[in-house]
User: Fold this.
Amino acid sequence: MNRIVFFVSIAALGLGGCAGYRESRGFIMDEQLAQAVQVGTDNKTSVEKTLGRPTYTGQFSDNEWYYVSRQTSTFAFRAPKVTEQQILRIKFDQGGNVSAIERTGKEKIASIDPYGKTTPTLGRKKSFFEEFFGNIGTVGGVGPTSGGQPGQ
Assistant:
């Protein structure tokens, strides 16, 4: 009987490490505040006072602000999966007034699958020993980084 209790408790402890969890990342979206921002009425200052600083600004122009909210879930040691995502994109005109508001979700997530396990490179393939012992004698030798002249 003691053995059964022992093995059940060990199994419960082991499976406890495999429990999943949820995580919120980025901006915590408050729908009432997000709805309060209006095109033609608000400007950068009022948007910042209402929503706070953006998650990030546009890459080519600081007249685009992005508020990104993401919920993920993870089970055991697997990679996190996005369960929900909201992106609020606010565009400003040259005067700093709100000109457009866009909302998007998980459909904007790009899935990239790398090809193969190695990256092809040009040149000669070296063996383990050539890689390991190949630089012996080159430290302090004559070359472009040593500063010395050939024949000196």
